[in-house]
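task queued by scheduler; priority normal; single chain, no ligands, no partner chains; default sampling; output format set to structure tokens
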Amino acid sequence: AVVSTQSGHYGRDSDQKDIEVNLKSGGRLHINFKPPEIKLNGRSLLPESFTAASNSYVTLLSNVLDGNKTLLPDINTVLASWNIWDHVINLKHSLLLHPNHKNMAVSNFGKFIIAGYTENPMEEEHIKFFNKAFMVSDHEEHLYEHVVHDIVRVIGETLEGSDKVHIAVSGGSTILGVYKYLVAYSSKKNLPWKKVHIWQVDERCEAAHANARDLKEFLLGDIPEISPSQVHFMPVSEAGCGDISAYQKEFLSANPKGKFNYIILGLGSDGHTASLFPSSKPISKTADFKHVEVDTGISPGRMTVTFDLINRSDWVSILVTGSDKRDIIKDIKQGKKFPVSEVVNAQLTWFIDEILL
């Protein structure tokens, strides 16, 4: 199409735009319109920021009128963009500072560019994308702080409309850094711990290796405000795993909505998350929890949440640290599928040690 832009421009002194389009078919279309007001974080995106994009409107309109559909996104692309914007609207993090606009934030996701103004930009923390979800990458110690601030945010937001917050924590060594920073944060600022319930993502059936030991030693022992009645341990004894259905009943009794407000997952070097391994064999199962046998040297008997429960959670974080995770991160980036690929929650954020990327 041969197109030309006539009088009018984007700017503070004019909110109108005149476009004249010469079509391949020989027709001519004259359009006068007012650019829509677009806001992010409560602040308008100034019209002149989009001056360079004006010809895009001309190109798009001329192609539509000439019947050329190549510039139009398919339905999957549209739905994907909605998921991105839903997350941006709900997310209260700042975005990456644009190098040419001190108060303009942008982030790229494939064909999409998220742009907006931010009142309080954080230069060290910016949002990127990994495996079609939001990602925060940073030095390992800083990652723990980011996760803690995310937990604090969700506690505050949840209590705006509820009298309880339900948080689930995974086992393993990675979560210990989060415990350390959460204890430090709690010592400086008052958190409403009396309204927070703690749940286990997974548990080992050998009491000597139980994740509950770390939870008690590194978190609960240093935050006395958390009452024992608010901590829900999976049933493990010296005899091994207990009845997983009892944990299901406890879950629904304390949490009638049947979902977590926040869940912190880890990632194994084989792609497993929670205790959902590639070769997990179910022993017993309820709607939200499983008793499984896994092929691992430490406690092959496990109890774990299901992917259904993970994906129903309000917010999900996957925290990945350790040099042994470099290969699995590379494989996931290349599109290979692993158990963790079943985590498809719309409010998922990956927190990944920058050395792994």
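post-processing summary
- The chain is about 25% helix and 25% strand.
- Helices lie at 54-65, 75-90, 140-159, 175-188, 211-218, 244-254, 307-312, 326-333.
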